[in-house]
Amino acid sequence: MASSQAAQYADMFAALGSEPRLEIMRLLFAAYPEGVTVGEIQEQVKIPNSTLSHHLEKLRHEKLVTSRKHKQFLYYSANAEAMQDLLSFLSTQKALTTTDTPINTTSGEDGFMQNNFFRFFESVFTNLLGSLSSRFYLSGYDRFSEKAMRVIHLAQLESRRLQHEFIGTEQILIGVLGVGDGICQQILNNLGVNLADVQQEVEKIIGRGKQISLVDVPFTPRAKRALELAVAESQKLHGNQIEAEHLLLGILQEGTTGGGGVAIRALQRLQVDLSSLEQSLRSAIS
Predict the structure, then answer these.
(1) Which helix (H) or strand (E) holds 282?
(2) Which pTM does this prediction carry?
(3) Which domains are assigned to the chain?
(4) Which of 188, 189, 173, 190 is nearest to 244 (CA)?
(5) Where are the beta strands (DSSP E) in 53-127?
(6) How far is 253 from 128, CA to CA, in rounded Å?
(7) Model confidence over 130-162: pLDDT tens digits?
(8) Rounded Cα gap, residues 260 and 262, in angstroms
(9) Are 79 and 66 in contact (CB under 8 A)?
């Protein structure tokens, strides 16, 4: 990432480093996308108008909020795309560019701040943007474990990082590796596969897109099929929940029946024996 981009995200992050601004953002998220008038914000946060104006101007300057005038009222709204870009930066810079460190393992005071902001924004986007709702129609979706949901969320973030308007099997594979400290990561690591290598191969295959305009990134037909197969694999193995390993099995099954997507191609480029990988997975979860 260019230093100017990193500086931009650092400024955005710093702009949120005060309790009043976090409270303002909470109000704007609650009213998204309609927005809230300055008067309504002032009534809730109960700070002087001059101080409120300063906070709003700082948030607007960092593109964290947008404003619009309707009749005689000035409305402020959360800038959803900018906030999700910040969330993507916070996660990918720590988790999606390292090979062995799970997400949210930053240490010290800065790490405490980053991890708490990350959890805050992650929960916000899960509820605000419906990252798994409007594009995700699967019987059994309610049985996805917290880690499996995290895989899908990381897949969405990876898609945004590469500036693509879709989530494919390759982003789900990266999400599987991104959650860290699980059966899938252990098996893949034992086969010589790590997160950074998969990201590199995926980018070689699909490249980077243009700046995306979608907030709710859709799944490709191949990715949807892999998710459906993951649900079927869980049912076949009599599991109560769909875990990350079922998602990886779904990717492998889709690759076998569907001719192989980008995830399969990336694994093959890394000299992974797909049959051995599947066998190891099934042995681990049976």
Answers:
(1) helix 274-285
(2) 0.58
(3) 3-78 (1.10.10.10), 130-285 (1.10.1780.10)
(4) 173
(5) 65-70, 73-78
(6) 32
(7) 444 444 445 556 678 888 888 888 888 888 888
(8) 7
(9) yes
